[in-house]
Amino acid sequence: MSFQEKSAVVSLLANVFGYIVYFGEVFRRFLEGDVGSGGELAFWAVAILIFIPVITIIKVIVHVIFVVINTITRGEKDPEITDEFDRLIELKGVRNFCYVFMAGFMLAMVTLAATNQPVSMFVVLLFTIMAAGTALDASMIVFYRRGA
Amino acid sequence: MDKLKIGNHIRRLRFNHDEMTQQQLADKVGVTRQTIVAIEKGNYSPSLELGFRIASAFETTIEEVFFIEAKSR
Question: What's the whole-model pTM score?
Answer without folding.
Answer: 0.83
